[in-house]
Amino acid sequence: MLAGALALLAGCALPSPETRSANALAWAAQQGWAARLLPGPVFDIQAFVPAGLKRVDRLTVYIEGDGLAWLDSHTPSFAPTPTDPLALRLAVADAGARAVYLARPCQYTVGPAFKSCHPRYWGSHRFAPELIAAMDQAVDQLKTAYGAHELVLVGYSGGAAVAALLAARRGDVRALVTVAGTLDTARWAQQQRLSPLDGSLNPSAAAARLASLPQWHFVGGQDKVVPASVLTAYLDALAAQNRHGAPAPVVQRMPDFDHRCCWAQAWPDLSRSFE
Which of 20, 77, 150, 232 has an alpha carbon within 20 to 30 A of 241's alpha carbon? Predict the structure, then answer.
């Protein structure tokens, strides 16, 4: 398992960004997935796609979490490439087999592709307008590559905030799915006693544009990184819109799950609920 291998490495010494990228690439290749770099005017963004995926009408796009944003409470990492890309493992485990994976800006990219990257983009500006715009352009490239007409966006942890912000600005998203999602960034920063994410957008502030969208939210009962109260704050913002006839968000609470365990193992079954 990728998680086990990377955890072992992390226990000995933190792998470099290049090693973390190589590990993910090697594991993805074992699953029959290939890396695809999506160039953009500001950020180049890394995607992983199944080698056998052809044209599809509906494409499911998995969006990674914040990755290795900090080395400790005072030191940002040099690059936010995850040590264990859980959203990639979810994408591979998706029962629908029409899924692709999208990393966040500055994850996996090295050399010239690491352009425009600065620690603020995995700190206070992790959900900045320019990052959301870059992710939006990357989604457009994937949509065009597979001839898709509509999208399902699945976000893990901080990737849930990105997915929600993308859904709020696009007209082709048919469902929003989140796993352990940071859906109210103000409430999350407050609960974690972090500085406010002053350079970032907050999905709860986009509730008016999201209230009519079908949504599935998965939350772990043991999650201390993104507690269930963060989702509650977002759901309260949706409810305040009081849209007549809007579909009620589906919330599935997994009492024994935390922020990482045991989403990938359960995902082949859980992903069937929104297919």
Answer: 150
- Give the position of tokens 């990219």: 109
Per cent of the chain over pLDDT 70 is 96
β-bridge pairing 45-50 and 99-102: antiparallel
Task: Please write the tens of the pLDDT for every residue from 107-160.
Answer: 999 999 999 999 999 999 999 999 999 999 999 999 999 999 999 999 999 999
Q: Which of 64, 221, 267 is nearest to 157 (CA)?
A: 64
Strands of the sheet containing 173-179, edge to edge, are 33-38, 45-50, 99-102, 58-63, 150-156, 173-179, 215-220, 250-254
**pTM for the whole thing?**
0.94
Calpha distance 244→232 (Å, rounded): 20
For residues 218 and 181, give the distance between their C-alpha atoms in angstroms, rounded to a whole number: 8
Tokens 């500055």 correspond to: 106
Q: Which domains does the chain have, with CATH numbers?
A: 2-273 (3.40.50.1820)
Q: How far apart are the C-alpha atoms of 182 and 188, rounded to whole Å?
A: 7
User: 101 pairs with which residues across the strands?
Assistant: 48, 62
- Residue 202 to residues 146, 205, 267: CA-CA distances in angstroms? 30, 5, 27
Residue position matching structure tokens 């494409």? 59
**Which of 111, 108, 96 minimizes the C-alpha distance to 138?**
108
Measured CA to CA, the distance from residue 127 to residue 114 in angstroms comes to 18
Query: For residues 33 and 158, what is the distance between their CA atoms, to the nearest angstrom?
Result: 23
